[in-house]
Amino acid sequence: MSTKTVSAAAFAREVERVLPLEAPYAYHKRLAEDPVHVARRDPEAALQAGEMAIPERDWRLLWDRGSSPVLEHAVRDFADYLATSMQVKVEVVGLDSLADWAGQGRAIVVGTREQLPGCGATLRRAKDYEIVVTPERLLVCGYDERGALFGLYHLEARLNLREAPFLPADLQTVRHSLYETRMVQSWLGWMEWPDAILSHLAHDGFDAIFASVYANPNGDRTTADTSTEFYARLLHKVRPQDPARMRDLIDRAARFGVKVYTPIIYQYLGTPESEAGLRRLVREIVTVFPDIQGYVLLTEGFWYQQWGGCHGASREYVQDWARNWSRAVAIVAEECHRLNPAIEILPWEYNIDFRPQNTEMKRYFIQQLPGDSIPLLTWENGKGFEMDGMRGYLRDYSLNQIGPAEVTEAQIAEARRRGMKVYSKADTIATWQFGTIPYLPFPYQWYERYQALAKYGIDGTLESWSTGYKPSFIAELRAWTCWTAAPGLAEILGALAARDFGSGGKDRVLKAWDYFSQAIRLLPDTGPHMGTNNAVGNPLFFEEPPARTVTFTRSWTDHGQWLGYFGSSVVPQWPFTVFYLVFCPDFSNQTNRAEQYARGVSGVEVGEDTAVLPVFLSYLRQASDLMEAGLKLYRSAALESPPAKRQHAVREVVIAEHVQRMIQSDHAILEFEDLRLQQAAATDGRQAAALLARMTTIVRQEIARTKLSLQAATRDSRLGFQFEQDYVYTPYSLREKLAILQDTLKRQLPAARQRLPA
Questions:
Q1: Are 602 and 390 in contact (CB under 8 A)?
Q2: C-beta atoms surrounding 174 within 10 Å
Q3: Which of 185, 318, 531, 630 could form a disulfide with 468 if both were Cys (CB 3.0 to 4.6 A apart)?
Q4: Cα dihedral sign, 18-23-28-31
Q5: Rounded to whole angstroms, what are the CA distances from 128 to 141, 206, 505, 637, 692?
Q6: By C-alpha distance, which of 271, 686, 682, 737 is closest to 537?
Q7: Is pLDDT of 2 > 70?
Q8: Where are the domains of the chain?
Q9: Helices marked H in 523-642 — which ranges?
């Protein structure tokens, strides 16, 4: 293993050399429009003992021409894959019957257990498949057509790792799907579902999408337009849905074997009139879209009377809310199942207090649900933990804890007691902890979560809300683990590392991933906050900057309300993203917002006399140090990767470097603010000068980091994007940040030093 050390500054020269400039949304355009299959064959790959090669010519790809468009599309996709990625030409032949499949030689035979007599006897349910390889034939037998489809995609995954059309000569595998449904949103944006993204996600093992988020699929806006309740006012700002667009999406997704789930948006009031309105809405939706597979009844959009998490409410109030909300769920189930018993009803009571001490109340919600619904449980939110002796719980979606949360574990047990299936909203590729980074390179930590999901027998998943799907090696890892008979983790990761960095860098890459996975376990900044989503784009404020937008400090408009959810949702001093992703000091120096931030986002619950910030900063430093230990190996492996792999390897390193910069900038912002308050209150000149000296060092380091972040963002247009608000930071806002930092360094801090007593 090479011990060569490569600094971030030195690696930046290679980034500039091999990665071209990208405008914002450039990656979006490529993902939406470019072919799904690309050349993947390694010309140096040689057939090894125990392998067979799919010949480059004169083989056929056989299927039953009486199959549905789903299987026909999968067969033609596989033929395109072989030609484009592996330089193997096969003749696609549709037969009237596959009954004599055993007599077919020099062929890839694809079908279902009904089409292939004598095959698939041990397949149990949808998406299961069997693959049998002999020197003269590849057989792919699915439990159903989607099983055959995923069997073909599994062959693609094997060939991708091998980088050649070589397979074990005696491969015989039966793989059972662990999940009835794997559902995901689109990273590209709201209702952005081009065919290419549908194909990509199906290749990575997803078989369902969640679309029309926060909007009824038929365009009904009754609740959003007529209710004055808090959440209805938020929904009023959601884009209206076009039923024709929804119809087109359902039809196109079906060709890829992809099911469609949507929300139902309604405020249930418990009155006869409200019940009649809900029944009418459900009947209209199911009649217009009889092929929607299921409905996610998320409390953010489907609620009883008054929206909220019932924090601080009496037991009687919460139980009454649970009973009435569950009654609304039952109404939806009754109307759906009257028309189609196969429609899935997925109640998701996300907002209800998920702290560990609320276990019994969360269990109560499961007890109230109709038995023909499938509870959708939030996986890790509320998970308890300890940090330097301080107890806390996860405030939002994060990867530093594996899960499930205590409340989720209790709900799973209650659902099983009632004989109900269980689905879970579980991040598996990306999460709101680093939500503006396209995927999180922590494979060992992800794998532990995958194992936990399997251990608890989760029947279906809604994965990585709301970061959505985009291709990555983590998405590939996840796909391998969603069926039985998966290779061991070391084998999968070793193959991925060798493929992306070259065999010479494999061991360094594996060790780097181990360091990265250790780092995320220590990260105390959780959920959708500044520290892990916008720290690289958030300035260090020493003086209050001028407002960059209109303000209402003297008008009859309440400026505080205007800043919030029902106003502009931006901070006038830094209006480049939503207010909750910006750290802005209290320039009156009355409160230490750095301490408030550490308390709030870490989930630690301690008394006011116990400072959380020092521990928070310590954990950030430890996580950053582990990232750096891994990055030394990662950079080295990329710089020594083969020329054909260099650009991709460098991009992988840039992602990990950006994670570290986010952690370091998070630390810098909070430490700088804490020092700013100390300096403002200092009465001793020497003490104040020492504080200013440390702040100067922090600003210099942040300038260097921001320049590297700018370089990364201008060469990878994925960075900074999170579809709920598009770009959180852009190259433009990073340049604006640099201008503030330079002014702070050259004018503001020297002026403060001049004001100190001699």
A1: no
A2: 18
A3: 185
A4: negative
A5: 9, 14, 35, 38, 64
A6: 737
A7: no
A8: 51-169, 181-486
A9: 530-533, 559-563, 593-602, 613-639
Pairing of strands 384-387, 344-348: unpaired
Beta bridge pairs of residue 304? 268
Per residue, the 3-state secondary structure of 139-154, as one string, reads EEEECCHHHHHHHHHH
Q: What is the DSSP string of 207-243?
A: -EEE-STTS-TT---HHHHH--SHHHHHHTTSPPP-H
Inter-residue contact 245 to 195 (CB < 8 Å): no
Q: CA-to-CA distance for 604 and 618, rounded, in angstroms?
A: 14
pLDDT on residue 309: 82
- The yes or no reply on domain 51-169 and CATH 3.40.980.20 is no
DSSP state of 724: T
The predicted-structure confidence for 179-223, as pLDDT tens digits, reads as follows 999 999 999 999 999 999 999 999 999 999 999 999 999 999 999
Tokens of 45: 């790959």
How far, in Å, CA of 29 to CA of 721, rounded? 14
Q: By CB neighbour count within 10 A (0-12 exposed, 13-18 middle, 19+ buried), where does 7 fall?
A: exposed
Q: Are 444 and 513 in contact (CB under 8 A)?
A: yes
Assigned token pair, 658: 């950006």
Residue 84, judged by CB atoms within 10 A of its CB (0-12, 13-18, 19+), counts as middle
Q: Which CATH number fits domain 181-486: 3.20.20.80, 1.10.10.10, 3.40.50.2300, 3.40.50.1000?
A: 3.20.20.80
Q: Which two tokens stand for residue 104?
A: 């077919």
Nearest one of 312, 387, 379, 349 to 603, comparing CA atoms: 387
Within 10 angstroms of residue 273's Cβ, the number of other Cβ atoms is 8
Q: Scanning the structure block, which residue is given the tokens 């209109």?
A: 550
Q: What's the rounded Cα separation, in Å, for the pair 501 and 540?
A: 37
Residue 392 · residue 347 · CB < 8 Å: no
* Run of H or E including 158: helix 145-162
Q: Answer yes or no: are the C-beta atoms of 123 and 144 closer than 8 Å.
A: no
Band (pLDDT 50/70/90 cuts) for residue 126 is very high
Q: What span, in angstroms and rounded, lies between the C-alpha atoms of 151 and 74? A: 10
3-class SS at 444?
Answer: helix
| Tens digits of residue pLDDT in 53-109 | 999 999 999 999 999 999 999 999 999 999 999 999 999 999 999 999 999 999 999
